[in-house]
Amino acid sequence: MRQAGRYQPEYRALRRERTLLDIVRDPALCAQVTVLPVRQLGVDAAILFSDIMVPLGPVGIDYTLEEHVGPVLARPVRDAADVRAIGRLVPHRDLPYVLESVARARELLGPTPLIAFAGAPFTLASYLVEGRPSRAHLATKGMMWERPALFRDLMARLADVAAAHLAAQVEAGAQAVQLFDSWAGTLSPAAYDEFVAPAVSAIFSALAPLGVPRIAFALGAGELLRRLRDAGADAVGVDWRVELATAGERVGPRTALQGNLDPALLLAPWSELERAARQALDQGVRHPGGFVFNLGHGVLPNTPPEVLARLVSLVHAYPVPAARPAPRAAPRAGDEERR
Ligand code: 1CP
Q1: Looking at 25, 51, 160, 192, which residue is catalytic?
Q2: Is 179 helix (H, G, I), strand (E, B) or coil?
Q3: 49 and 18 in contact (C-beta within 8 Å)?
Q4: What is the pLDDT of residues 281-334, one digit of tens each?
Q5: Pocket test for ligand 1, best of 15, 34, 52, 115 (most atoms within 8 A of CB)
Q6: Which CATH class for the 9-233 domain?
Q7: pLDDT digits (tens, 9 = 90+) for 255-283
Q8: Residue 33 Cα: closest atom of ligand 1
Q9: How far apart are CA 284 and CA 307, in angstroms?
Q10: Is the Cα torsion angle 4, 33, 237, 228 positive or negative in sign?
Q11: pLDDT tens figures, 56-93
């Protein structure tokens, strides 16, 4: 989830001098910002400091990240000419600073893994078509229903951008990828299947040969968990609207779970936070597909960093039951002779 950000006094101080995109374009600084939460909180992995909009500038989208708002476009993507103007991403040419940041962060992190991320096609499309953050995504859904072929073209172009961006980050050293489909939960399952799942599958298929874990996160998308698995996710992010035990039943034993603490609990009395964290751990560690303790969405800006650090210690102190021996693999041809 978002690990670096406004809850950190150091980040706020840095942002008084530099914009978010200044930080992203300065690999030495970006690597430091990426590593800071690992050093301060003791979390077990870093996520590269960036934003889902970063690969869209080079493919022709003119946007700004507005203070306290988010991505705002100079001109929303509304018609066929706008969609066709979205080009292909060539990461080594277009985003050399991101690849350099990955390499530098890896050097600073030592054995701690680095997660690369990208925005998923529907979530990116919602910023592009609405032109700014939106709750109802009406213009985006409007394009989907009124101009389905155009919308599918948009999804396919954004899938190409995300796949190229993620693959290049893995080649530069990232050890896992996370696809953020923050707004897919606003879709009906039928609309997701028809318009979005093919694009998400294309991304995960393109990444399969790289052999890194592929994590899919969608907010408010309990009904989509199985679909994220079917699109090729090795792990699914779960938010607090679905219990981890239920999420585990939905995805089955071969897909890992990640989540699912409500970030608002970090502002609650410690006893409440502890109770909810233990409940997540109790359920998560029983899931045979594996479990990554995490928040159900990004850290809220008014979160006290020391509460996050205390939560990390609680998770690390939790007694994880010894892994059950893996079921015996079926004998393979040739096993008999070797015995
Ligand atoms: O270090 C890290 O943890 C990486 C931080 C990170 C991530 C994972 C940032 C920096 N952005 C993102 C991804 C991102 N960006 C998502 C997907 C994850 C999620 O659902 O939270 C989304 C939807 C965005 C778009 C975006 N960028 C918003 C949300 C707007 C909305 O629709 O509500 C905002 C506010 C931004 C700006 C931004 N990006 C990142 C930060 C820390 C900030 C805010 C603070 C700042 O401007 O410095």
Answers
A1: 51
A2: strand
A3: no
A4: 999 999 999 999 999 999 999 999 999 999 999 999 999 887 655 444 444 443
A5: 52
A6: alpha beta
A7: 999 999 999 999 999 999 999 999 999 99
A8: 1
A9: 21
A10: positive
A11: 999 999 999 999 999 999 999 999 999 999 999 999 99
Residue 109 C-alpha to ligand 1 middle, in angstroms?
Answer: 22
Beta strands in the chain (DSSP E): 46-47, 63-66, 70-73, 114-119, 176-180, 214-217, 235-238, 256-261, 291-295
β-strands 70-73, 63-66: how paired? antiparallel
Q: Is 192 part of the annotated catalytic residue set? A: no
- Domain limits, the chain: 9-233
- Residue 298 Cα to ligand 1 midpoint, Å, equals 8
The response to whether residue 65 sits with its C-beta less than 6 Å from ligand 1 reads yes
- Residue 92 CB neighbours (<10 A): 10
Atom of ligand 1 nearest to the CA of 68: 35
How far CA 191 is from CA of 155, 233, 248, 250, 304, in Å, comes to 13, 19, 24, 19, 39
